[in-house]
């Protein structure tokens, strides 16, 4: 009894990018006498049965025979192609390679055909081969398809139809259809490009702005890369739809921590604050090493070096003039030293006409006024060495410390109609007060003044723990400003 057998033909097709993929062809046949020695004879090779589907192995997977046997090997991609050149073009979308560059403007593309289409934009309109032959037109196009669409426009064809119920309008241009939808089927003020996400009513002037906005609806747009948030067998990665939400998560769950033993894990609001704090540790350690070295007695021949304000650590700005060994902790201090010491600038001039004295530092002018003209100045004098460090001396203002100075400036801005006052606790137009504040509680009015809706929204969140919608706050601020400035 004859049994059907299979002839296995093993071949190799080269697939660029991730190595060579083996393609195994399985061809069923009814000739059981077929063997390798017989194939070497003059007999014909058995042909595959047409009644059964042939299979091939593509990248290790048995699939029905198909012309698209070159499959992408990148994880999560199931695209396949009939030619290795097409597969190579597709894989550039994964690797980011753009080998075809425009010699005129430098733009690069994945395919040569894309570059060819782009280079046409640098050619004059007279180079376009297809011309509209209608009387008085003469427009030229690159492709026959574009010419057909243009000719249909001459014939009055209206290819863009409104899809709204009970609306039979149609238009020749797509932008005309968008304008119709905005004016007839959308709320007042709607812009041409409307977000189609469920529950979103925003619209935009350009398609680019719409695409940028649509990214905010992606709940997995940003992921936390902190080691505690990385995916594991028991947990999935944490995703956030906006950059601000990710930053808020990092500040709350992963705040910067000082690892110095004396700080015992002190936390900071930002990396900048942590770096400034660590710099203090470094300065203290450098000053301690400087003092220990001075006390060791190694420099008994020379007098002890004067300890400078701010310490010796971090003096990276050195004077470049020959013979000057001064160094400073900031570029501003170095510039002041250069202008006064090496360039001879004297910007502080005595106000007395009969005097005519000038000085390089403000404290020297103050000292001159006291000693020579009997003028009283407020605040202690500062030495030249201290001012050369570029550090302003702290002054104590009782109004600034008590907040009286801010209140005076706020009143001035309100009288000049340059700012608005925080409406708290009368915030019924901004949030649901009954859900956030006790109904019978009394709250003092807030003295905060602002000019931008953004500042008010941040102030309400940080000071009064009220989270308000951006659109609601913007509307309220515009309404209040119109009360002050009716022309806005």
From TrEMBL:
Q: Where in the cell is it found?
A: Nucleus
Question: Mind telling me which PROSITE patterns this protein's record contains?
Answer: ZINC_FINGER_C2H2_1, ZINC_FINGER_C2H2_2
Which GO MF term does the entry hold, naming one?
A: RNA polymerase II cis-regulatory region sequence-specific DNA binding
Q: Where is the sequence biased in composition, kind Polar residues?
A: 44-55
Per its UniProt record, what SMART domains does this chain match?
A: ZnF_C2H2
What is an example of a Pfam family matching this protein? Answer: zf-C2H2
Which residue range or ranges hold the C2H2-type domain?
70-99, 100-127, 130-159, 160-192, 193-222, 317-347, 348-378
Any one GO CC term of the record: nucleus
Q: Could you list this entry's UniProt keywords, alphabetically sorted.
A: Metal-binding, Nucleus, Repeat, Transcription, Transcription regulation, Zinc, Zinc-finger
The segment annotated Disordered runs over 1-55, 285-315
Q: Which residues cross the membrane?
A: none
| Biased segments, Low complexity type | 26-37
Q: Does the keyword rRNA-binding apply?
A: no
Give the matching InterPro entries.
Zinc_finger_trans_reg, Znf_C2H2_sf, Znf_C2H2_type
Q: Which PANTHER family match?
A: C2H2-TYPE DOMAIN-CONTAINING PROTEIN, ZINC FINGER PROTEIN
Q: What is this protein called?
A: C2H2-type domain-containing protein
Q: Which organism is it from?
A: Agrocybe pediades
